[in-house]
Amino acid sequence: QVQLVESGGGLVQAGGSLRLTCAASGMLGSINVMGWYRQAPGKQRELVASITEGGSTNYADPLRGRFNIFRGAGMNIVALQMNSLKAEDTAGYYCAGGRQRVITPDWRYWGEGTQVTVSS
Are the C-beta atoms of 108 and 99 separated by less than 8 Å? Predict the structure, then answer.
């Protein structure tokens, strides 16, 4: 089993920045990709960014260049740097861990989420 705990959410003005972190513990050998998802009220959950054990990254097209995902030496710490925040970025942000597949990862573990609210 893998446990994921997010931190770093809060209230920020439009144009500001936040850094979210995800701390993973447990059977870390069972995951080789981690990512961030977000879900706003009334909207479908969407992928923000992901990173593999080898360092390959993937971003939602509208967020490339504005959001950046990083990892530590292993898979125990993954961070999401969010810059130039907009009101539409307001959502619950969730950390996920899983295994790589040909098309999309097999997401097996999820954190409870952290709220990001951007005021205009």
Answer: yes
Asked if 54 contacts 109 with a C-beta cutoff of 8 angstroms, the reply is: no
Q: Which is it for strands 106-110 and 91-99: parallel, antiparallel or unpaired?
A: antiparallel
Q: Walk along the chain (120 residues) and give the pLDDT tens digit of each residue.
A: 999 999 999 999 999 999 999 999 999 999 999 999 999 999 999 999 999 999 999 999 999 999 999 998 778 999 999 999 999 999 999 999 999 999 899 999 999 999 999 999
The answer to whether the CB of 80 falls within 8 A of the CB of 36 is yes
> Which candidate, 1, 3, 20, places its Cα nearest to that of 12?
20
Rg over alpha carbons for the chain, rounded to the nearest Å, is 14
Q: How far apart are CA 6 and CA 112, in angstroms?
A: 7
Instruction: Determine whether 101 is exposed, middle or buried from the number of CB atoms within 10 Å of its CB (0-12, 13-18, 19+).
Output: exposed
Length of the chain measured in residues: 120
Q: What is the DSSP secondary-structure string of 44-69?
A: --EEEEEEETT--EEE-GGGBTTEEE
